């Protein structure tokens, strides 16, 4: 059996699917150990996997103080973090290194691991390729502003690894934007963590009032209390029941819940989506694909994630939802929610899309792909 070292970025849409793949690998008898920010350790250990904090995770945060997301890119692109990962690989001696696609510091030193490396992207590749290029150019320029060497382009960081695995349906992605030979598409990984608990709702299961699930990003750096409150206020006068999940980024006491809403930190989204008529979300790939799998239309209000604006726009292009700007006002959110709830075409297209998402376990597909590197 093999040892897998997972170089981790613990963004909300990154860590949960990574844990799903790791569970399949461990069920197959392999060992998986995650290395990342101190913030990630407890979540991974709670899920039942080994995890270690990188002691240099925040070494260069002062140099990145100019950046609006210094705690993200001061970690993911820091040369000190890359050097520590090289030392970790020498000590841990894995058979395969798995790197989160957003983790540029790890990608930069990947050739020095001197063992097979797989890159995991938990959203679209081709549809958002221009955005990914811009993101990594920004990371490179940020490093140079800090006095460090820049980064090579995606043709090197992503294209020269042994495997670049896209945990999204090729059917939903765009025409190939690259000629890389290492790309493999799988399927969305819709795993849940243990904090996704059942929620006792105050409404009868026989109540036919439409249920709306309101859920934005679980990444602390994307916390937006004002947007959450605007969304609650937008849904307040509608004839709907609302379940809002804050993902732990906002305390429930910080929000004023209208009479038709229940606000909780975490919940089992699958159970709620079985009853729901609409999802209002941030355009994250995981939540979006989970909603479509349940045949639910979506109103998308993106946060700052690199894929969120394109995904919300894609929903509108498909006709399975509406796309709003990140600073959408109360009346904009209300109008979009009303239009989607009343529009049978949105539901029909979401149900049609759901057929593509049945019967394929993305975690198993990805696990088989990285296992092949052991050979």
User: SSE string, helix = H, strand = E?
Assistant: EHEHEHHEHEHHEEEHEEHEHEHEHHH
Write down the overall geometry: globular
User: What's the architecture of the largest domain, going by CATH?
Assistant: 3-Layer(aba) Sandwich
**CATH topology heading of the largest domain:** Rossmann fold
Tell me the helix content.
Answer: 25-40%
Total of DSSP H or I helical runs spanning 4+ residues: 14
Fourth-level CATH superfamily of the largest domain: Glycogen Phosphorylase B
Strand content: 5-15%
Strand order of the largest sheet: 3-2-1-4-5-6-7
How many domain modules? 2
Helices and strands in order, then pairings?
Layout: E1 3-7, H1 12-27, E2 31-36, H2 38-46, E3 50-53, H3 70-76, H4 79-92, E4 96-100, H5 104-109, E5 117-121, H6 129-145, H7 154-157, E6 163-166, E7 183-185, E8 211-215, H8 225-235, E9 241-245, E10 261-264, H9 269-273, E11 278-281, H10 285-293, E12 298-300, H11 308-318, E13 321-323, H12 330-342, H13 344-354, H14 362-371
Parallel strand pairs: 1-2, 1-4, 2-3, 4-5, 5-6, 6-7, 8-9, 8-11, 9-10, 11-12, 12-13
Describe the overall structure:
The protein has 375 residues and is an alpha/beta fold. The protein has helices at 12-27, 38-46, 70-76, 79-92, 104-109, 129-145, 154-157, 225-235, 269-273, 285-293, 308-318, 330-342, 344-354, 362-371, and strands at 3-7, 31-36, 50-53, 96-100, 117-121, 163-166, 183-185, 211-215, 241-245, 261-264, 278-281, 298-300, 321-323. The relative contact order is 0.13. The strands form 2 sheets. Strands 3-2-1-4-5-6-7 form a 7-stranded parallel beta sheet, with helices on both faces. Strands 10-9-8-11-12-13 form a 6-stranded parallel beta sheet, with helices on both faces. The radius of gyration is 20 Å and the shape is globular. Helix 10 links the parallel strand 11 and strand 12. 38% of the residues lie in helices and 15% in strands. The chain folds into 2 domains: 3-187 and 360-374, Rossmann fold, CATH 3.40.50; 211-357, Rossmann fold, CATH 3.40.50.2000.
